[in-house]
Amino acid sequence: MAEQTIVEALLLGIIEGLTEFIPVSSTAHVLLAGHFLGFESTGKTFEVLIQLGAILAILSVYSARLLRIATNFPSDGKTQRFVAGVLLAFLPAAVAGALAHNFIKTVLFESPLLICIVLIVGGVILLVVDRLPLKPFYTDVTDYPLSLCFRIGLFQCLALIPGTSRSGATIVGALLMGTDKRSAAEFSFFLAMPTMTGAFALDLFKNRDILTADDATIIAIGFVAAFIIAVFVVRYLLDYVSRHGFWLFAWWRIAIGAAGLAGLLLVG
C-alpha cells in the first residue's frame, strides 16, 4: 500500500468527521477531495464505510442520553413516541436508498459537476431559510409529532443526491415545518444513527466480495480520523447553531461548490 494512499485516507477521514454533522454535505466534500487527489476506492466503499466513525462519535457524546432513553423506553410513552418518530423518519430514505443504491454509486457519485452545482444551490437555499422570520412551535425533539418526523424523513431523501447534505436537508425541512434551529440540528443527529448505520450495512453487504485487506486498512484509517474529528463537532455544534444559525455553512457550501467548478474547468 502506497504511503500516499494512507495520507489521502487520513485526510479524507478528517474531512468526513469535520463535515458529516454540519449542513455542507460530507459526501460531496469527500468525493470532490478524492476526485482532485486521484483517490480511488473499491466500489466507492471508502466514502460510505468511514461514516461509521461519525456514527460512533454520536454514540460516544450522547451515551448518557441514549442510556436514559433505553432505560425509560419500556415504561415512558414520551420516550416511546420519540424513538418511533426517529425510526419513522428513517424509513423513506432507507427504502429509496436501497432501491436506488446502484444508480447512486455508479452515476451520482461519479458526477463531480452535479455535486458542485448541488452544493451551490443548497447553500443559497440554506442562506434564504436561515434568514426567514420563522416562528418555532417545537423546541424539544422529544415533543416532535410522528407526522412531523415522517415529513422530515421525506426531506432526508433529498440527501441521496451527493452535495445535498443529509443534515442540511433534514434541518431545512424541520425549520420550514416549525422547529427551532437547535432542536432541528439535534434531531438530525439522532436520525443519523439508523440512517448511516443502514447505509454502512447495505454498502458493506453489496461489496463484501470485492474488498481486500488493503481496502480494510485504508477504511480503518479514515474511520478513526472521522471518529476523532466528529466527536469535537458533535460536542460544540448545537451551541454554535443556537447562537449563530447556519449562514456560515451556507457560504461554506457556495465557496466549496464554486472552487470545485473552477477546479473542474482548470484540470477536469
UniProtKB/TrEMBL annotation:
<feature type="transmembrane region" description="Helical">
    <location>
        <begin position="112"/>
        <end position="132"/>
    </location>
</feature>
<keyword id="KW-0133">Cell shape</keyword>
<dbReference type="GO" id="GO:0009252">
    <property type="term" value="P:peptidoglycan biosynthetic process"/>
</dbReference>
<feature type="transmembrane region" description="Helical">
    <location>
        <begin position="48"/>
        <end position="70"/>
    </location>
</feature>
<keyword id="KW-1003">Cell membrane</keyword>
<comment type="similarity">
    <text>Belongs to the UppP family.</text>
</comment>
<keyword id="KW-0378">Hydrolase</keyword>
<dbReference type="InterPro" id="IPR003824">
    <property type="entry name" value="UppP"/>
</dbReference>
<keyword id="KW-0046">Antibiotic resistance</keyword>
<protein>
    <recommendedName>
        <fullName>Undecaprenyl-diphosphatase</fullName>
        <ecNumber>3.6.1.27</ecNumber>
    </recommendedName>
</protein>
<dbReference type="GO" id="GO:0071555">
    <property type="term" value="P:cell wall organization"/>
</dbReference>
<keyword id="KW-0573">Peptidoglycan synthesis</keyword>
<comment type="function">
    <text>Catalyzes the dephosphorylation of undecaprenyl diphosphate (UPP). Confers resistance to bacitracin.</text>
</comment>
<feature type="transmembrane region" description="Helical">
    <location>
        <begin position="82"/>
        <end position="100"/>
    </location>
</feature>
<feature type="transmembrane region" description="Helical">
    <location>
        <begin position="217"/>
        <end position="238"/>
    </location>
</feature>
<keyword id="KW-0812">Transmembrane</keyword>
<keyword id="KW-1133">Transmembrane helix</keyword>
<keyword id="KW-0961">Cell wall biogenesis/degradation</keyword>
<feature type="transmembrane region" description="Helical">
    <location>
        <begin position="144"/>
        <end position="164"/>
    </location>
</feature>
<dbReference type="GO" id="GO:0046677">
    <property type="term" value="P:response to antibiotic"/>
</dbReference>
<dbReference type="GO" id="GO:0008360">
    <property type="term" value="P:regulation of cell shape"/>
</dbReference>
<dbReference type="Pfam" id="PF02673">
    <property type="entry name" value="BacA"/>
</dbReference>
<dbReference type="GO" id="GO:0005886">
    <property type="term" value="C:plasma membrane"/>
</dbReference>
<feature type="transmembrane region" description="Helical">
    <location>
        <begin position="184"/>
        <end position="205"/>
    </location>
</feature>
<keyword id="KW-0472">Membrane</keyword>
<feature type="transmembrane region" description="Helical">
    <location>
        <begin position="250"/>
        <end position="267"/>
    </location>
</feature>
<dbReference type="GO" id="GO:0050380">
    <property type="term" value="F:undecaprenyl-diphosphatase activity"/>
</dbReference>
